[in-house]
Amino acid sequence: MKFDRLVEWIYRSRFYQTFFKDRGLLGEQLMLLHPGKKKEQLLEQYHCKKIREFLICCLVCLLLAVCGVVWGLYQRQQLEVSFVERPSYHQGDRQETLEAVRQDGTKETVSLQLSERVYTAAEAKERLKEAMDLLDKAFLGENSSPHRVDLPLVFETEPLEGVVVQWMTDQPDVLNSAGQIADSFAEEAGELVQVRAVIACQQEEAVYTREVMVYPLRKTDGEAFRRKTDHALEKADQESLQEEGFSLPEQIDGETVIFRKRTGKEFWFLSLLLFLAGILLYICRDERLTGETEKRRAQLLADYPGLVSKLTVLMRAGLTVQTAFGRIAMDYRRRKEQEGIYRYAYEELTLSYYEMVNGISEGRACEQYGKRCGLLPYMRLGGLLAQNSRKGNHKLLESLGQESREAFEEQKRRARKTGEEAGTRMLLPMVLMLVVTIVIILYPAFAAFQL
After folding, report:
1. Number of folded domains in the chain?
2. DSSP code of residue 186
3. Does residue 403 share a domain with residue 362?
């Protein structure tokens, strides 16, 4: 892909190699985490991944910047005003702040008080007439005739800007001032209701009247279902007041119903979080690499006693260093395939075994093993094994046994120290819990004392 080629070109550029070239520590950390791979290959993959993430963030920012510039140009054109529209009648006065730019380029800030518009008497009457026509068209709503009204009427309170309407009926217990038919109204023969609306525009007023025949509210399918569902849920709630909860009905009026909790989908908030996460991913990648290196170090220390013990047992049985390494490596490989484990100490040991198979001497392979692990215990172990290979040290088994015992003792000390640190970290939460408990117990007593 062209994007990947761009990433590789940036990585190989003289500028990047000059200012962002690895100073040694990063490459060593990558080699520790990926045994057997070349340093140059690991560095290229790592830096290319960082460059790729950075470019994606830059492209997104560039897109946002372009949108901002376009919007700014649009706003600039919109902000250059030569005509100010005043508030309509009944909206109240409005104050605006303008910036006056003089010929020499200096800018002055001025305040403008805009009074609401005042219609002439003829304009007010014309708007009243238009409003009355609009009210008459929208009045019936979904009802087909004023002689049978069984659905809510439409009572608009501001059909036109500057025109206010106040509705009333002569039977509010049947039809209220919002155009809603009372749920309790059940007169099948219907009821004649007179509707009156006072329309006002400044000082001019007009009266709009209609007579309608109101019948009990016709339920739409959705409304009827909601009412039946509400009734069923209310009944189930009242019948189980003394229980911890109640089961929702599986059927409503013979229809199978599945209830679900509604959840909001704030996609815009999620998008913002993902964008910020992408930036943090680039910034924190080096810190994550350091954290992975620390985890590797802890894993190596944890595996050291067991590894030394295995080597001691195998070499006491008469196996050579290479054969013992091979036995442990094959056993680890089998466990890795079956259980999916990944242990750095055994990965490095497997690599050393293959080096011996390929012709590297046992002494050198053992020393390289200790250096690649990078910890003092492993370096000491590599030195012991290399010394045995070169000088035939007959005290190797005794030295390995001593090393195994010391390793287990060191592991116990680390476990004890870790437990003490965990206890210290738990001390503050426990103290806070104690304080909260004391406050909960003593507060009622102090409150009663003050009363």
Report:
1. 4
2. -
3. yes
Q: Of the ranges 69-78, 151-160, 204-213, 356-365, which one carries the lowest mean pLDDT score?
A: 69-78
The contacts found for 353-360 with CB under 8 angstroms, 24 or more apart, are 353/322, 353/325, 353/326, 353/329, 356/321, 356/322, 356/325, 357/322, 357/326
66 and 139 housed in the same domain: no
pLDDT given at position 265: 47
Indicate the length of the chain as a whole number: 451
Tokens 């525009």 correspond to what residue?
201
194 three-class SS:
strand
Three-state SS at 148: strand
CB atoms closer than 10 angstroms to residue 47: 20
**Radius of gyration of the chain measured on its C-alpha atoms:** 42
Which of 252, 258, 212 has the alpha carbon at shortest distance from 233? 252
Crossing angle, helix 267-283 and helix 39-79, to 10 degrees? 140
Q: What is the CATH number of the domain that holds 198?
A: 2.60.40
| Strand ranges inside 55-182, DSSP E | 94-101, 107-114, 164-169
- The average confidence (pLDDT) of the chain is 79
Residue 18 corresponds to which tokens in the numbers above? 């000059």
> What is the C-alpha to C-alpha distance for residues 251 and 227, in angstroms, rounded to an integer?
14
Which candidate, 328, 333, 402, 391, places its Cα nearest to that of 362? 391
CA distances from residue 246 to 241, 249, 263 in whole angstroms, order as listed: 9, 9, 22
Q: pLDDT, tens digit, for every residue of 285-344?
A: 777 777 888 888 888 888 888 888 888 888 888 888 889 999 999 999 999 899 888 898
Q: Report the half-sphere exposure of 436 (CA within 13 A, side-chain side).
A: 6
Which domain, by its residues, includes 127?
A: 121-218
Q: How far apart are the first and last CA of the chain?
A: 78
Phi then psi for 212, rounded to 5 degrees?
-135, 150
**Residue 193: closest CA among 217, 218, 176:** 176
Whether 101 and 146 share a structural domain: no
Residues 6 or more apart whose Cβ sits within 8 Å of residue 444? none
Q: Is 143 helix (H, G, I), strand (E, B) or coil?
A: coil
CB contact at 8 A, 364 and 341: no
CA dihedral (318, 320, 322, 325) in degrees, to 10, reads 40
Torsion angle defined by CA atoms of residues 139, 141, 145 and 151, in that order, rounded to the nearest 10 degrees:
-120
Joined tokens for residue 318: 């008469």
Tokens of 341: 């484990």
For 69, 232, 307, the CA distances from 73, given in Å and listed in that order, are 6, 59, 70
State the Cα–Cα distance between residues 56 and 52, nearest whole angstrom.
Answer: 6
